[in-house]
Amino acid sequence: MSARFGLNADSLVVEVASNDGYLLRYFVEQEIPVLGIEPAGAAAKAAIELGVPTKIRFFDETSAQALADDGVKADLIAANNVFAHVPDIRFFAAGFPKILKPQGVVTFEFPHLLNLIEGYQFDTIYHEHYSYLSLLSVEKVLTAVGMRVFDVRELPTHGGSLRVFACHGAAFHEAQPGVTLIRAKEAQAGLHQLATYQQFSHNIASIRDEFLAFLLRAKQENARVAAYGAAAKGNTFLNYCGVTSDDIDFVVDRNPAKQNHLLPGSHIPVRTPEALAHEKPDYVLILPWNLFEEISTSMAHISDWGGRFVTAVPHVKIW
Fold first, then answer.
1. Are strands 270-271 and 251-252 parallel, antiparallel or unpaired?
2. Measuring CA to CA, which residue among 102, 69, 76, 104 is closest to residue 16?
């Protein structure tokens, strides 16, 4: 970003939802002035201790106007994985043009709705997300507050994300090929059509039904089922399927903070990974299925007693 937009000691980089200053500190190292905006007091104080100036507040149109009144004008604003977390996305977006210089740039990063639908990633739908975003929807929001998108990059994070570059509507930044590319991908996938979302609902219901049929077969065969990974996505999946400790004996996780507790909703007990070797279940369901290669390699010893791995998305597969 520093190279692309010619940032230097006369510039200002602002990050909205700057957390503990982890990103901004790299601009500080380049002697580029920064300002973090972070509502969580402990995280903001940690950033300040790192030498990252930080305002402890929520960002929206009102707080942005206060910043502008104090003379804050940014050359670059970063907002990573926060757009989906705000309850009033229009009120939030309206703050950016207030503190952006006439030729400044705002970047937003967020998980791409297209990947959620095409990859059946319904287990990434969490209570703290108010929105699941496409370029189509983000462009509508930004246009409503006087901004336009001029570039888009695809990122591998969070199951596939977008980094959207936006500016004032009258700024000189020329539209880049990435905008046309992502617009075309979304149009081809039918993200502008209600039928696409109705079909998505049907597809994930089929995934649930197929998994419940697997659990029923396992019970009829007197086979024991355990799970690996007390992750958020796993909890979403299990609760959507209505699974309880009657269906899955236990789940293992390497995080000591999760061990000796129960999964929310399903009340499946969380144990240490060593419990697998002790209990020798017939099947081990990998809940964070996006990490299958890593987990199956580290836990390959389950084959010693004939245990097999199971993944449930997009279809039940016994490995």
1. parallel
2. 76
pLDDT, position 126? 81
**pLDDT for residue 231:** 87
Range of the domain at 224: 196-318
**Given a cut of 90, is residue 129 above it in pLDDT?**
no
What pLDDT digit, counting tens, does each position of 102-114 carry? 999 999 999 999 9
CB-based contacts of 234: which residues, under 8 Å, 6+ apart?
Answer: 123, 227, 251, 263, 287, 288
Comparing C-alpha atoms, which of 129, 121, 113, 131 is closest to residue 189?
A: 113
In whole angstroms, what is the distance from residue 68 CA to residue 314 CA? 48
Q: Distances in Å between the alpha carbon of 311 and those of 121, 255, 308?
A: 13, 21, 10
Same domain, 212 and 261: yes
For residue 35, the 8-state DSSP code is E
Cα(141)–Cα(51) distance, integer angstroms = 34
The answer to whether 224 and 283 have CB atoms below 8 angstroms apart is yes
Q: SS3 for 296?
A: helix
The answer to whether residue 270 sits within a structural domain is: yes
Q: Is the pLDDT of residue 203 over 90?
A: yes
Cis status of the peptide bond prior to 314, with omega within 30 of 0: yes
The CATH number assigned to the domain holding 67 equals 3.40.50.150
Q: Is 300 a member of any domain? A: yes
Distance, CA of 245 to CA of 103 (rounded, Å): 57
pLDDT in tens, 68-104: 999 999 999 999 999 999 999 999 999 999 999 999 9
> How is residue 73 written in tokens?
């004008």
Indicate the SS3 state at residue 173.
coil
Q: Are 218 and 225 in contact (CB under 8 A)?
A: yes
Q: Is 150 left (phi over 0), alpha (psi -120 to 50) or beta?
A: alpha
Q: pTM for the complete prediction? A: 0.86
- Indicate the number of domains in the chain: 2
Nearest to 285 by CA among 232, 221, 215: 215
| Tokens read off for 121 | 């990633």
